[in-house]
């Protein structure tokens, strides 16, 4: 088959990590836009990217992109796609949409026109009037941006952050994809201690452990394109078996703690489900009791921001305490993500670097305090 145009979507700020992850699965050529990484590949690339991308939100097939100032142009553009190459006669066609700065701004109307064009194309191809849509689901998105229509087909189904291990969660859990991004930005390797002393449901340490053990993030979940007849079940099986073989047994030391008993229990269960229960030492204790005699550790955490969970005065006190407790961690690298603009003041130290990241719709900064790296072996 010829190569397909593919898109990995991601949170703003994580694109360069996704580019790197794509390289690791053999995709050399990528083009980055805001929150989107364009690349090319075949069905095998679709399977591997769904199984292995830790920081991307979804993997889409880009079907067409064209100017559309009115419904007729949108209809004709959508009709020109060879839908029969992607959707079988019994496929369930679910059209979603979004529109930004476009003459065609009514999303429900755009969705209805695209659906009409798909059905019309299928009628012509299959010479039948009615489709029962009893088969696998095909989620098609019409995206209108500045009068340019882009049609995509979602290969992932549920967003890739849904790894399948987090049934139990705390009050403000981090998306798994963002937690994996924080681990990547920390440059942690399993030869160093890793810690999250405000771990909530455990997302950051679990993502670190999965990366350390090289567990493919999509290994225990399913994907909508797994149901599609076009991508053979044996291709999925081969790549799943390969991923299973690539899991290592490297020892590592990951410390996770939280003051809240309820979220702490959730974290332990989540880690077991993610197959990393044996790599993480969980403790129920306040951050103030965190200490380590080890050198070159890596601490990554996502404390309360003072928006949803605690008042401004309480977070100021918490951040000041973090400043005191973490200053004793000789040679450690510390990474703290918060939306609180006064963080550095309360923490008592300016960061060496900071990076803007979005936690959902919340603009945050990852404050980075870079310690020493372990001597090369
Ligand atoms: C934003 S949540 C962390 C969410 C977590 N990253 C996750 O994905 O579930 C902040 C966590 O800090 C914990 N916390 C707040 N104050 C603490 C303290 N003094 N010591 C330890 N944990 C604390 C809360 O119990 C909460 O679970």
Explain this structure:
The protein is an alpha/beta fold. It folds into two domains: 4-154, VC0802-like, CATH 3.30.2130.30; 176-213 and 248-369, Rossmann fold (3-Layer(aba) Sandwich), CATH 3.40.50.150. It is 31% helix and 24% strand. The protein is built from ten helices and 14 strands. It has helices at 15-24, 43-52, 71-79, 107-126, 176-186, 203-212, 233-245, 261-273, 312-326, 343-347, and strands at residues 4-10, 31-33, 36-41, 56-67, 92-100, 137-145, 148-154, 194-196, 254-258, 280-284, 298-301, 333-338, 353-359, 362-369. Strands 2-3-1-4-7-6-5 form a seven-stranded mixed β-sheet. A hairpin with a 2-residue loop joins strand 13 (353-359) and strand 14 (362-369). Helix 2 (43-52) crosses helix 7 (233-245), helix 3 runs parallel beside helix 4 (107-126) and helix 5 (176-186) crosses helix 6 (203-212). The longest helix is centred in the N-terminal third of the chain and has 20 residues, at 107-126. The protein is elongated, with a radius of gyration of 23 Å. The two termini are 46 Å apart. Bound molecules: S-adenosylmethionine. Residues 170, 172-174, 198-201, 203-204, 258-260, 263, 286-287, 302-304, 318 line the site of S-adenosylmethionine (SAM).
Layout of helices and strands:
Elements: E1 4-10, H1 15-24, E2 31-33, E3 36-41, H2 43-52, E4 56-67, H3 71-79, E5 92-100, H4 107-126, E6 137-145, E7 148-154, H5 176-186, E8 194-196, H6 203-212, H7 233-245, E9 254-258, H8 261-273, E10 280-284, E11 298-301, H9 312-326, E12 333-338, H10 343-347, E13 353-359, E14 362-369
Parallel strand pairs: 5-6, 8-9, 8-11, 9-10, 11-12
Antiparallel strand pairs: 1-3, 1-4, 2-3, 4-7, 6-7, 12-14, 13-14
Helix pairs in contact: 2-7, 3-4, 5-6
The structure holds S-adenosylmethionine.
Residues 170, 172-174, 198-201, 203-204, 258-260, 263, 286-287, 302-304, 318 line the site of S-adenosylmethionine (SAM).
């Amino acid at each position: 088959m010829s190569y397909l145009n593919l898109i990995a979507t991601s949170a703003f700020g994580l694109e360069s990590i996704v580019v790197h992850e794509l390289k690791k699965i053999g995709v050399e050529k990528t083009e980055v836009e805001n929150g989107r990484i364009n690349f090319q590949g075949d069905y095998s690339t679709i399977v591997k990217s769904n199984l292995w991308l830790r920081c991307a939100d979804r993997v889409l097939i880009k079907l067409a992109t064209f100017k559309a100032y009115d419904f007729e142009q949108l209809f004709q553009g959508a009709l020109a796609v060879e839908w029969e190459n992607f959707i079988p006669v019994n496929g369930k066609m679910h059209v979603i949409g979004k529109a930004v700065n476009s003459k065609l701004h009514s999303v429900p109307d755009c969705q209805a026109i695209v659906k009409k064009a798909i059905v019309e194309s299928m009628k012509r191809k299959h010479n039948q009037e009615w489709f029962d849509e009893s088969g696998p689901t095909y989620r098609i998105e019409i995206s209108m941006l500045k009068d340019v229509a882009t049609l995509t087909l979602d290969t992932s189904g549920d967003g890739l952050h849904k790894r399948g291990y987090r049934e139990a969660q705390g009050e403000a859990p981090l998306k798994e994809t963002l937690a994996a991004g924080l681990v990547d930005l920390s440059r942690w390797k399993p030869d160093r201690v890793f810690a999250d002393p405000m771990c909530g449901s455990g997302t950051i340490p679990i993502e670190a452990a999965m990366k350390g053990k090289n567990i493919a993030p999509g290994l225990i979940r399913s994907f909508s394109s797994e149901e599609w007849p076009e991508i053979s079940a044996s291709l999925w099986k081969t790549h799943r078996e390969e991923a299973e073989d690539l899991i290592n047994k490297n020892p590592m030391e990951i410390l996770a703690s939280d003051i809240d008993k309820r979220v702490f229990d959730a974290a332990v269960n989540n880690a077991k489900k993610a197959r990393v229960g044996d790599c993480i030492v969980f403790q129920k204790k306040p951050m103030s009791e965190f200490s380590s005699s080890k050198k070159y550790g890596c601490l990554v955490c996502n404390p309360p921001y003072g928006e949803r969970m605690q008042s401004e005065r309480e977070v100021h006190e918490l951040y000041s305490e973090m400043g005191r407790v973490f200053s004793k961690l000789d040679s450690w690298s510390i990474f703290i993500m918060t939306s609180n603009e006064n963080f550095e003041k309360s923490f008592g130290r300016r960061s060496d670097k900071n990076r803007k990241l979005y936690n959902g719709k919340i603009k945050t900064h990852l404050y980075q305090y870079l310690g020493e790296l372990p001597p090369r072996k």
